[in-house]
Write a structure and sequence with these properties.
CATH class of the largest domain: Alpha Beta
Helix content: 40-55%
CATH topology of the largest domain: Rossmann fold
Largest sheet: 6 strands, parallel
CATH architecture of the largest domain: 3-Layer(aba) Sandwich
Structural class: alpha/beta
Number of strands: 9
Length: 294
């Protein structure tokens, strides 16, 4: 099948690579090196979203924000200039559910399918083909697009009506942030009490306190000394902010969520929004005096 993919960054790249295995892939990205990576592997580079849409009726997006998604769809040389009726635009961006619903409504009037399908599990999950994909749209749309998504992952979930995927993803990332901060706090405490951090993480991972930080973040990125997770503090700030918007619009108090964002701000203030999320470990080391890294 002919498939398009726009956005070949840390997450988009491994997702697009899995599609390339079984499909003819057309790609667009602002980074020339990203395009060359795929053209060297048999994909076709497109100069604009419009050019890409003229080649396929199945288009995946994996972009930083919903605002950029809107621009790629509606802007100059955007998808809407050439995309055919009954096409599917699948938004894997960690986006804002309300904007997603607005885009979907507009495209529906033009007989174009727009569904949200954000992912969770990081580049590791994407590479391994087991990343979670949460799909928002109608059940009919889900049924039509799932066989293609099977090329990406074995873990695909129907989340509900349009925007539900983005809602769950925002909530998931806020929970990830809360758990991350709580885990670094506890590991710092244990290190100060003389416990080896690797032993602490190993044991907690097999106990009731286990979470993504004890399973992936600490072993793979912190305790290894690698300090590269492939996800920036700025993107985490954005994702947690989306969850906060959802809470505010529904009059739900999220004290732990807001506290975790205040703690994240300490890392951003010191290292900036382009810094890898692994830098949170440095913030806790400075705050507590506990040496977590090797």
């Amino acid at each position: 099948m002919k498939v398009g993919f726009i956005g070949l960054g840390n997450m988009g790249k491994p997702l697009a690579e899995r599609l390339l295995r079984n499909n003819e892939l057309f790609v667009h990205d602002l980074d020339q090196e990203n395009l060359e990576y795929f053209t060297n592997r048999g994909a076709t580079a497109c100069s604009t979203p419009s050019d890409l849409a003229s080649n396929t009726s199945r288009i995946f997006l994996c972009l930083p924000t919903s605002a950029i998604v809107e621009k790629v769809i509606n802007g100059e040389n955007g998808l809407l200039t050439t995309v055919a009726k009954d096409s599917f635009i699948i938004d894997m961006t960690t986006g804002e559910p309300e904007i997603t619903r607005q885009i979907s409504k507009t495209l529906y009037s033009k007989k174009i399918n727009f569904i949200d399908a954000p992912v969770s599990g990081g580049p590791k999950g994407a590479n391994q083909g087991n990343i979670a994909i949460m799909v928002g749209g109608t059940e009919s749309q889900f049924a039509k697009i799932k066989p293609l998504m099977d090329d990406i992952s074995s873990n695909i979930f129907y989340a509900g009506k349009i925007g539900s995927g983005h809602s769950i993803k925002a909530g998931n990332n806020l929970l990830n942030l809360i758990c991350r901060m709580a885990t670094f706090e506890v590991i710092s405490l244990l290190v100060k009490d003389g416990v080896d951090p690797k032993k602490a993480v190993e044991i907690i991972q097999k106990s009731s306190g286990r979470n993504y930080a004890t399973e992936i973040t600490l072993p793979d990125n912190i305790l290894s000394g690698k300090m590269v997770q492939g996800f920036s503090t700025g993107l985490m700030k954005k994702d947690a902010g989306v969850a906060t918007k959802i809470a505010d619009s529904n009059n739900v108090e999220i004290p732990l969520g807001k506290l975790s964002q205040e703690l994240l701000k300490n890392t951003i203030d010191e290292f900036g929004e382009n810094a890898d999320m692994s830098n949170v470990a440095l913030t806790y080391e400075k705050l507590t005096g506990a040496k977590i890294r090797p």
